[in-house]
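Input structure tokens:
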């Protein structure tokens, strides 16, 4: 018997590859990396890094909600940026979506991300 559940919500973008929005096992939820895709149109949002990161965290929050939690249940967040100069702006967006005490986190600069976006964020929750 497996206690593995696939989490899916129309309030976040559908997967653009062979993966699930999130997988829940027991009380742990692994949310796949989210990019600034609008869930209704499946198009990238336009705007600066703050606009893009806000859409990413909205997507993460929608998936967390579908899993029975919230971003306050995050224990680890991984952020990938194509330009580390965006670090402070993305931090400000994260602070708007997560309350103290903040989760553990990593932030790395990468050469490229899906669809040429500037930011991708994934999260692990304990709900």
């Amino acid at each position: 018997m497996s206690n593995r559940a696939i989490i899916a919500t129309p309030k976040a973008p559908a997967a653009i590859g062979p993966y699930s929005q999130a997988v829940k096992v027991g009380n742990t939820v692994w949310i796949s990396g989210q990019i600034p895709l609008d869930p209704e149109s499946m198009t990238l949002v336009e705007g600066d890094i703050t606009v893009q990161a806000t859409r990413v965290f909205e997507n993460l929050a929608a998936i967390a909600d579908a899993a029975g939690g919230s971003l306050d249940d995050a224990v680890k967040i991984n952020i990938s940026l194509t330009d580390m100069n965006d670090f402070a702006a993305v931090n400000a967006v994260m602070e708007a979506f997560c309350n103290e005490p903040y989760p553990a986190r990593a932030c790395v600069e990468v050469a490229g991300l899906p669809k040429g976006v500037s930011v991708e964020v994934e999260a692990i929750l304990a709900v």
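DSSP finds two helices and six strands in the chain. The radius of gyration is 14 Å.
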